[in-house]
Design a protein that fits this description.
alpha+beta, Porin, 60s Ribosomal Protein L30, Chain: A, 3 domains, four-stranded mixed sheet, 12 helices, 20 strands, elongated, disordered N terminus
């Protein structure tokens, strides 16, 4: 009897591992692992998020249910990149280890991006995955090693499965919404005596940014994971972002417990930490779960200041000074050769005096004093550059942006505040014109230029300018504004 109990250890461990496999993703037989940092990494929820930037990669680590012995450890790498203006490709690599059981999953995805407006796009994506469940039976204890049956059961048990998923994602200026379907290729996964069925799952999410681009940005999230014929797992999360860098958040997952999040973004890098704690009846005693995210976004704006060149039109003063010396000295140069041709009588100096007064010799030198008047005039035009630009364009301020960015730095925010005061002090309407440098794809640059103009317009409205006085225009990609390439990534005012 004692021997039979030890013989069954293998099957008990195998069954336990499979049960943990079903539960490790959440409560009530949730099949997909619940990562909490989806506000940084949308690929955790929807395959359609692939290629939303030029290149993005996020590495996730989750230590789940620390109150349970040999609880799951999960690793997931999500990476995607844009191809042109309409396509995106990416992949997801996932691994979960729990005791003797290890799960490996590799997913390849594609997304098509459809432009709906200057500030909104619709992404549609599909993904195909391969997964392997591996149970290491070599680590089980068997009393009778000569028993062929028991030794066979001590081998590594594997099952390979294929799956697919699809999703749609709306990315607006403030609104983000999406729906995705997972496990569309429904198969039974089997490990020796234990077989479990993977059912289709639907993920629905929506988020909205309040005070976008401001010093304090609030973004609530609503997410629901529905398993066909199984669990319904809704949750709510509210993130508060300070100065577009530091984020803190808190939320609640129905029938499970509380969530918390903290993260920071510096330049192109991001780091985030989250934890969840079960407070429901079915989750009590599971302990806390911790997650860490390390991310890279090559298209995110660096936290650096743009060059301060507020008055671009201060350069016109040299042209009015240049023409004055060039027009009148010319007659003086032309008249000097004439006396140089008549040095035939070097001693007799009175003869040129008799000849020159008869024609115009004395009248033309009389014009020479006129040259003295323009010599004093350069002082007067020096005062005009301050007045003339204001009459032509009182808003001679240029807002500079980083490459592939439409985010407003603190320095540019101060510039925009000054522009708002100038507009409010004067009458008339203003056109906000956005530009982009010529590098990269033309359509993307045109969109980026329009987005920059839209962002600046919203900032002006925030600082008190009436919306009906402002309109936007895309200047597109150009190199004619400045010889320095990066100085063409601007917004200007007309």
């Amino acid at each position: 009897m004692r021997e039979m109990k030890k013989i069954s250890v293998f099957y008990r461990k195998l069954t336990s591992a499979v049960l943990v496999l079903l539960l490790s993703s959440g409560v009530k037989a949730q099949q997909t692992t619940l990562f909490n940092t989806y506000s940084y990494d949308l690929m955790q929820l929807n395959v359609a998020a692939i290629g939303r930037t030029c290149f993005e990669a996020n590495l996730n680590y989750r230590a789940q249910w620390l109150g349970i012995s040999e609880s799951p450890r999960l690793y997931q790498l999500n990476a995607g990149m844009a191809l042109g203006s309409n396509n995106g490709v990416g992949m997801r690599i996932f691994q979960q280890s729990q005791g003797l059981l290890k799960i490996t999953n590799v997913t390849g995805g594609y997304a098509y991006r459809l432009k709906l407006s200057e500030t909104s796009k619709l992404h549609m994506g599909v993904g195909v995955s391969w997964s392997q469940n591996n149970f290491d039976g070599t680590k089980t204890n068997v009393i009778d090693k000569t028993d062929v049956t028991l030794n066979t059961n001590q081998s590594n048990l594997r099952s390979n499965n294929f799956d697919c998923e699809a999703g749609a994602l709306y990315l607006g200026d403030k609104l983000t919404a999406g729906i995705s379907a997972l496990h569309l290729y429904n198969t039974n996964s089997k490990l020796e005596l234990v077989t479990y069925n993977i059912k289709p799952q639907l993920n629905v999410m929506v988020a909205y940014k309040f005070n976008k681009g401001g010093p304090i940005e609030v973004e609530p999230w609503l997410v629901n994971r529905l398993t066909v014929g199984g669990a319904n797992q809704p949750e709510a999360l509210v993130n508060v972002k300070f100065m577009q860098m530091v984020t803190v958040g808190a939320g609640y997952r129905v029938n499970y417990g509380i969530l918390a999040l903290a993260g920071v973004e510096v330049g192109k890098l991001r780091v985030a930490y989250s934890f969840d704690y079960g407070t429901g009846k079915s989750s009590t005693g599971l302990g806390t779960s911790h997650q860490i995210l390390l991310g890279l976004d090559l298209c995110r704006k660096k936290n650096t200041k743009s060059p301060d060149t507020t008055l671009v039109q201060e350069t016109p003063p040299p042209p009015p000074v240049a023409p004055t010396p060039t027009t009148e000295p010319e007659p003086v140069v032309k008249e000097e050769p004439k006396p140089a041709e008549e040095p035939a009588a070097p001693v007799v100096k009175e003869e040129p005096k008799v000849e020159t007064p008869i024609p115009v010799a004395e009248t033309k030198p009389a014009e020479v004093p006129v040259v003295k008047e323009p010599i004093d005039e350069p002082v007067k035009p020096a005062e005009k550059p301050v007045i003339v630009p204001e009459e032509i364009n009182p808003i001679a301020t240029t807002i500079y942006f980083d490459k592939n960015s439409s985010l407003i730095s603190t320095e540019n925010a101060n510039k925009i505040k000054k522009v708002a005061k100038i507009i409010n002090d004067r009458r008339g309407n203003v056109v906000v014109v956005g530009y982009a440098s010529p590098e990269g794809e033309q359509t993307h640059n045109n969109d980026l230029a329009a987005k920059r103009a839209q962002v600046v317009r919203q900032a002006l409205i925030k600082y008190g300018v009436k919306a009906n006085r402002l309109s936007i225009k895309s200047g597109g990609a150009t190199s004619s504004l400045d010889n320095v390439v990066e100085h063409n990534r601007t917004v200007r005012f007309e």
